[in-house]
Amino acid sequence: MSPERFRREIRKLAPEADPEPLFLLATLLREMAYPLGLIGEAREDLLRERHLLDSARLVPYLSSGPVADLGSGAGLPGLVLAVLRPDLEIWLIEPRRKAVSFLEYARVKLGLERVKILRARAEDPEVPRGYFHTVTARAVAELARLWEYAAPLLLPQGYLLALKGPRAPQEIRNLKDLHPELQGQAFRYPLSGKGTGFVVKIQRADS
Fold first, then answer.
1. Helices (H), 48-196
2. On the chain, which terminus has fewer CB atoms closer than 10 Å, C or N?
3. Rounded to whole angstroms, how far apart are CA atoms 2 and 21?
4. pLDDT at residue number 112
5. pLDDT band at residue 205, thresholds of 50, 70 and 90?
């Protein structure tokens, strides 16, 4: 994906945001996250399309904060969301030391003052309970397991946003078999090359 097309696609998802810091993030991912084994791509054009643009798909579904990005890894989607929604308080929750080191460096380089980084798992006691309006995740766990991680962290009106592949509708059905009171939606979008991705939104019935 060319830089010009990438800018256009980002502006469709986040019309009021500045996409330029994402080019710096792509460089940081290539030069640091890739050697650390946090991502599997080294080409910046593929990084922009497969990781940054994919992460930005969540932006239209964000409203208010705080936001918790579970298993943030290389900051996907958390750092992307922080760049495109700098007004939000975003927590990057990640247990691996090398990933946390990258996240801390990237936060400084990108000037993301409202980003908090916590070396922990979602279930650890230092992660605030009942505090977050939104929990986000990408490539962390099956939806049913992911909800178990997210639910205790959410405010009563909060919701989970997850980036999922083509199995998303089945994962929603599996989740609702366990929790029929939940409301689940899957919003389809095209993946690079062939295939389909989904933004999955899960809310409590009383939200």
1. 54-56, 78-84, 97-110, 143-150, 168-178
2. C
3. 16
4. 97
5. low
| Signed CA dihedral, 122, 127, 131, 134: sign only | negative
Main-chain phi, psi angles of 192, to 5 degrees: -65, 140
Order of strands, edge to edge, in the sheet holding 196-203? 115-118, 90-93, 67-70, 132-138, 154-164, 196-203, 183-190
pTM of the model: 0.94
Summarize the confidence of residues 174-196 as an average pLDDT: 88
Burial of 97 (0-12, 13-18, 19+ CB in 10 A): exposed
Does residue 206 surpass a pLDDT of 80? no
Share of the chain above pLDDT 90, in %: 82
The identity of residue 93, as a single letter, is I
Q: What sign has the CA pseudo-torsion 186, 118, 37, 10?
A: positive
Residues 6+ apart with CB under 8 A from 143: 162, 164, 168, 171, 172, 174, 175, 200, 202
For 100-111, the pLDDT digits (tens) are 999 999 999 999
Dihedral (CA of 182, 188, 193, 194) sign:
positive
Residue 136 structure tokens: 């986000």
Using the structure block, give the residue that is written with the tokens 């090398």.
98
- On the question of pLDDT at 54 being above 60, the answer is yes
